[in-house]
Design a protein that fits this description.
- By secondary structure, the protein is α+β, with helices and mostly antiparallel strands.
- The chain is globular.
- Helix 2 packs antiparallel against helix 3 and helix 3 packs antiparallel against helix 4.
- Strand 12 and strand 13 form a beta hairpin.
- The strands form 4 sheets. It has a 6-stranded mixed β-sheet, with helices on both faces. Strands 1, 12, 13, 16 and 17 form a 5-stranded antiparallel β-sheet that branches.
- The protein has 3 domains: about 100 residues, no CATH class; about 100 residues, Pdz3 Domain (Roll); about 170 residues, 2-enoyl-CoA Hydratase, Chain A, domain 1, CATH 3.90.226.10.
Length: about 425
């Protein structure tokens, strides 16, 4: 398995816990079920990063779940049980599922190939449109930032809540991440397919739009296991002195475009790096970006488990960016998109603005249990020189500010506006 994609795979596998589609190749015998169960339990017992299993009595859990597995005759229920066992550890980057169901449960931000051109956030128990891409299907259909989505193909937010299972780490921010992802899964889809959006406009009038999803461009193949991924980045000058950079994943295959975008705005006095909706990725890609903000080899953290401690460093990469930096984060910034702002915050490279992140930050490693089942397990804890680990804790912004419905209707992104205000006053 290509370690470059370990974070992308690791959190998406957790979604397999909620799969309900029938599985053709059933694990029918008790012997097969117990063999699979033993392999999963032993893998955790030998490789989980924490010898204390996050204060879980792992041997007792074996005895607790074994009779349930023995009596489980349906594959869907079996994988739910196995994930329930793994979730006892309350760790991110931890899950198991059949490869046949992987494609339907990957991040829509990265893997869905049909789009209508919007992004959303759940604010005050409402689905709000937070971005509408120019010239997109959504834009030409009259959807605007600040509109409230009431139903997607007849499903309300309450309906989607019922189909979203809790996943570790168990905190409110992470719960919102998975619920938002579930909403996005219905907004994205296959190219040329139709989605019906029922919404409230700026006057609270009930309206609906029948939208045909368009095909995304510029896909990249990361591995034979995964479908094509869509690595996107953009950069531009907000005004004469402040530039903006955004991208959706930390992947070496896509970081060349990110680095090229950064190079275009290197002379800006202020830079906003927008990691809202960034799904993480590889540490190698993360260090490549961070190398533009240091002048010497700099220790950023340590990978620790029961066997070893490995220090890691950022190396300078070309010309250093010399302006002031703000990084935007929210509940949709996960994993590598938490590690980067946490390191930036620790090294005093930039100011973090937005909302606290979910806290999905362990080093997850993927392995094949057999030729049809894939498992992800956290094998290292990531810790900074000050002893802080964002797993479950998340990254706390230096300036916390939420998006606001009234401001969105006025076309104001309050988090970005605060970043511009902050950089303008430096």
């Amino acid at each position: 398995m290509n370690k470059v994609i370990y974070i992308l795979l690791s959190f998406t596998l957790l979604l397999l816990n909620g799969c309900k589609s029938p599985e053709k190749n059933r694990i029918t015998t008790k012997t097969d079920r117990i063999e699979l169960y033993d392999r999963v339990w032993n893998t955790v017992n030998e490789q989980f990063y924490d010898p204390n299993f996050n204060d879980v009595d792992w041997k007792a859990k074996y005895e607790e779940y074994k009779p349930l597995v023995e009596n489980c005759t349906e594959n869907d229920s079996l994988f739910i049980l196995l994930n329930d066992l793994l979730f006892e550890l309350n760790s991110s980057h931890c899950g198991i599922g059949p490869i046949s169901k992987l494609e339907n449960n990957l991040s829509p931000y990265l893997f869905a190939d049909g789009i209508i051109g919007i992004d959303i956030r759940i604010i005050d128990n409402e689905i709000l449109i937070t971005r509408v891409s120019p010239n997109s299907v959504a834009a030409t259909s009259g959807l605007k930032v600040g509109y409230v989505i009431k139903k997607i193909d007849g499903l309300s937010l309450d309906d989607l809540k019922r189909s979203t299972n809790p996943r570790p780490p168990f905190n409110d921010r992470n719960a919102k991440f998975y619920l938002t992802t579930e909403v996005l899964r219905y907004i994205y889809g296959k190219p040329a397919s139709k989605v019906i959006i029922e919404y409230l406009d700026e006057y609270s009038n009930q309206r609906s739009a029948h939208l045909i999803r368009t095909k995304r461009k510029h896909s990249t193949i990361l591995t034979d296991v995964l479908p094509p991924v869509f690595l996107e980045s953009e950069s531009f000058f907000i005004n004469d002195s402040i530039a903006y950079l955004a991208f959706n994943a930390f992947q070496p295959e896509g970081l060349s475009h990110v680095m090229a975008d950064l190079q275009k705005v290197m002379q800006a006095k202020g830079l906003v790096i927008d990691l809202r909706g960034n799904d993480g990725g590889s540490i190698a890609a993360m260090k490549l970006l961070l190398g533009k903000f240091v002048t010497r080899r700099t220790k950023w953290g340590t990978y620790s488990n029961r066997h070893e401690n490995n220090e890691d460093f950022i190396e300078p990469v070309g010309e250093k960016y010399k302006g002031k930096v703000v990084v935007l984060v929210d509940e949709m910034s996960i994993s590598g998109a938490e590690n980067t702002p946490a390191i930036i915050q620790h090294l005093n490279i930039a100011t973090i603005i937005g909302m606290r992140t979910p806290g999905q930050l362990l080093w997850g490693d993927s392995s094949f249990i057999n030729d049809s089942i894939l498992m992800v397990l956290p094998i290292f804890k990531i810790e900074y020189p000050n002893g802080y680990n964002p797993e479950n804790n998340g990254v706390e912004p230096d300036i916390e500010i939420a998006l606001d419905k009234k401001d969105l209707l006025k076309g104001i992104d309050t988090q970005l506006a605060k970043a511009i205000e902050f950089l303008s006053n430096k």
